Amino acid sequence: APQHQAEDVVTVASRFKQRYECRLPPAARPVCSRWGPGGDRGVPPASPGASPAPSLTRGLRGTPPAPSLTRGLRSCQTKDWWTYEFCYGRHIQQYHLEESEIKGDILVLGYYQSAFDWDDETAKASKQHQLRRYHSQSYVNGSRCDLTGRAREAEVRFLCEEGAGDYIARVDEPQSCSYVLTVHTTRICHHPFLRPSPGLAPQPIRCQPALSPAQYVQYVRAQVSDTKRKVEEISEELRSLDTRLWSERDSEPPSQSAE
């Protein structure tokens, strides 16, 4: 094996402890460039006027206030039996509709409490918002939950989707009476922190055994021997099938001609 390994080659091992050298495609090679002093290339600096909303601009430093994300944002989504109504900065409700009329009780999943603070170093430490590129709000003190005895609560996550308008993409309940609403909106897509990263086409990774010349010759011979064995097995199966077909044909009684 070579003493010095190229930067685009990594060594992996199979479950049988056989080592392989795999060459990475250009898109997967590490890049160590930066925007400038103190600026990581992975998080480009915010440009002036590129703030999605006042609640976001407090944390996206260097960005002036922008028109509110919330103006007119009201969304409803029906999922199975329930319809979910989200009024930004106010409340989230859940109810059942029949022929456009509400039937039964209206459950409040929470009233607006706060938004994710992008200036809070403790909050940003998890990196979840930056890695998954969403902004969030907390809604609390909803209707009492019969299962837990506590008030219902919800988290609303805003994700960028170009040309989609505003709509509730999904509603999850990871815990009883604790909800996560995912809202897709175009109103935050102009900010680099929240814009989806460009998709990359799959690239092949080619691997070969990390063997010495003598080991590699032995490996090739083993592969050839295994191929010959498989060919012989297939040939034997074909001969057996051919013999069985002829045997069945000979055992058939002759057809009787019509009188």
From TrEMBL:
Source taxon at top rank: Eukaryota
Entry-linked InterPro entries: Man6P_isomerase_rcpt-bd_dom_sf, MRH_dom, OS-9-like, OS9-like_dom
GO MF term set: carbohydrate binding
Protein name: Endoplasmic reticulum lectin
GO annotations of cellular component type: endoplasmic reticulum lumen
Region of interest: Disordered: 33-71
Alphabetic keyword roster: Disulfide bond, Endoplasmic reticulum, Glycoprotein, Lectin, Signal
Keyword Cell cycle attributed: no
Role summary: Lectin involved in the quality control of the secretory pathway. As a member of the endoplasmic reticulum-associated degradation lumenal (ERAD-L) surveillance system, targets misfolded endoplasmic reticulum lumenal glycoproteins for degradation. Lectin component of the HRD1 complex, which functions in endoplasmic reticulum (ER) quality control and ER-associated degradation (ERAD). Specifically recognizes and binds improperly folded glycoproteins as well as hyperglycosylated proteins, retain them in the ER, and transfers them to the ubiquitination machinery and promote their degradation. Possible targets include TRPV4 as well as hyperglycosylated HSP90B1.
Gene assigned in the entry: Os9
Chief subcellular location: endoplasmic reticulum
Record organism: Myiagra hebetior
Domain MRH: 74-191
Family the entry assigns: Belongs to the OS-9 family.
Description of how the protein assembles with itself and partners: Component of the HRD1 complex, which comprises at least SYNV1/HRD1, DERL1/2, FAM8A1, HERPUD1/HERP, OS9, SEL1L and UBE2J1. FAM8A1 is stabilized by interaction with SYNV1, which prevents its proteasomal degradation. OS9 and UBE2J1 recruitment to the complex may be mediated by SEL1L. Through this complex, may interact with ERLEC1 and HSPA5. Interacts (via C-terminus) with CPNE6 (via second C2 domain); this interaction occurs in a calcium-dependent manner in vitro. Interacts with CREB3.
